[in-house]
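quick q for whoever's on today - can somebody do inverse folding on this one?? i tried earlier but teh output was garbage lol. C-alpha cells:
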C-alpha cells in the first residue's frame, strides 16, 4: 500500500494526474492552468507531462471556458474546467445553468455532459474582493447539476477522480483555505472500492450533538469537537461531502441518537444549504429532537475586506456557542 503525506492541493494534483493517465479523453482547461500550473499550483507540472493539447491555457473568459467544454463533452471528451477563483464563476453562470445543467434533460437522455467544474471556494486567505465567495447554493439549487466538496487530502485525491469519471456534470468545490493542510493519502486505493462520491460520512463519532459541515468547515467542527471534549461533551462530526444530491441517511441516524444538530457553513444563512438540511432533519427526526436545529454561518453580507474576514467566518467559538445553546432548550 503506497501511503503518502500530501497537502490537499497536492492530492488534487495527483488525482488529476491519474485521471489524465487513465483516460485520453480527459482534458484540463482554464486560466493559467498550464505553464503556470494554476494560481494555487493545483495543475502544476501537468502541461509539461501531458502537453498543451490536454492541459490548455484559455483566454480570460469564464463563459468561453464553460461553453467550449460543453461542446467537448458532447463530442465525447471529459473536460475539467478550472475557475480560477470562486468570484469569477458568475460570468459562466448562464452557461452552467442554461446549458451544462439542462443538456441531458433537453435531449431526453441522449446526450451526457461528463464535465467537472473545479471552483476554489470560501474565505480564510485574506483575499481581495471577488476572490472569496461561497456560491454553492446557486448550483445545488439547480436541477441537472451535482455538487460536491472535499475536506481532506484523501477525499480530494479520490473524489476528483470519481468526478472526472462520472457521466454527469459536477461542480467540484475545493476549500482554498485548506489547500496546504496535510494528511495521509492511500495512492493505491482503487476507485471501485472507494467511498461513494455522493455519500456523507461520519468523521468523528460522538453521542451528545451532531455537527454537520462540508468543505472548509469540517476542520473547524473537528477542532470544536476536540475543544468540547475538555468540557465533557461528546460531539459527532459529519462531513456532508455531497451538496446535491444531499445524502442524509447517516445524518438522520446520528440525530436520532444525539437529539441535537448544528449545521455549519461559511455561506450566508439566508436560503443556504443549512436551511435545507435543517428542514429535512426536522421533517424526518422531529420526535427525536431535544432542541431546534441550529445554524452557524457567514453573515448575510458580501464577504468583507481581508481585515474583517475573521469576524465574518464561522469559527470554533461560534460553533461551541451554538452547541451550548442546543442544551438550553
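ok took a stab at it. sequence:
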Amino acid at each position: 500500500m503506497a501511503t503518502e503525506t500530501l497537502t490537499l492541493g497536492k492530492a488534487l494534483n495527483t488525482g488529476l494526474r491519474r485521471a489524465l493517465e487513465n483516460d485520453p479523453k480527459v482534458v484540463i482547461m482554464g486560466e493559467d492552468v498550464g505553464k503556470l500550473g494554476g494560481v494555487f499550483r493545483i495543475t502544476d507540472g501537468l502541461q509539461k507531462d501531458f502537453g498543451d493539447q490536454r492541459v490548455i491555457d484559455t483566454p480570460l473568459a469564464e463563459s468561453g471556458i464553460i461553453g467550449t467544454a460543453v461542446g467537448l463533452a458532447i463530442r465525447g471528451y471529459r473536460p475539467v474546467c478550472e475557475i480560477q477563483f470562486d468570484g469569477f464563476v458568475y460570468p459562466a453562470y448562464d452557461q452552467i445553468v442554461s446549458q451544462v445543467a439542462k443538456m441531458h434533460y433537453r435531449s431526453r437522455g441522449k446526450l451526457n455532459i461528463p464535465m467537472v467544474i473545479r471552483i476554489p471556494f470560501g474565505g480564510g486567505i485574506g483575499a481581495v474582493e471577488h476572490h472569496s465567495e461561497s456560491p454553492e447554493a446557486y448550483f445545488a439549487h439547480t436541477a441537472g447539476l451535482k455538487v460536491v466538496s472535499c475536506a481532506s487530502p484523501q477525499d480530494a485525491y479520490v473524489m476528483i477522480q470519481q468526478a472526472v469519471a462520472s457521466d454527469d456534470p459536477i461542480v467540484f468545490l475545493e476549500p482554498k483555505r485548506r489547500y496546504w493542510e496535510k494528511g495521509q493519502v492511500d495512492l493505491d486505493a482503487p476507485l471501485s472500492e472507494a467511498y461513494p462520491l455522493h455519500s456523507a460520512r461520519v468523521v468523528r463519532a460522538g453521542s451528545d450533538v451532531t455537527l454537520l459541515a462540508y468543505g472548509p468547515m469540517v476542520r473547524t467542527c473537528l477542532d470544536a469537537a476536540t475543544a468540547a471534549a475538555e468540557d465533557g461533551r461528546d460531539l459527532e462530526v459529519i462531513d456532508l461531502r455531497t451538496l446535491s444530491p444531499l445524502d442524509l441517511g447517516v445524518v438522520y441516524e446520528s440525530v436520532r441518537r444525539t437529539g441535537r444538530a448544528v449545521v455549519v457553513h461559511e455561506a450566508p444563512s439566508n436560503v443556504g444549504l443549512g436551511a435545507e438540511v435543517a428542514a429535512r432533519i426536522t421533517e424526518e427526526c422531529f420526535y427525536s429532537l431535544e432542541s431546534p436545529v441550529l445554524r452557524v454561518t457567514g453573515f448575510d453580507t458580501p464577504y468583507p475586506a481581508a481585515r474583517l474576514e475573521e469576524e465574518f467566518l464561522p469559527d470554533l467559538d461560534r460553533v461551541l456557542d451554538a452547541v451550548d445553546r442546543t442544551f438550553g432548550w
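fwiw The first strand starts at residue 3 and ends at 7. also The chain is about 35% helix and 20% strand. so keep that in mind when u check it
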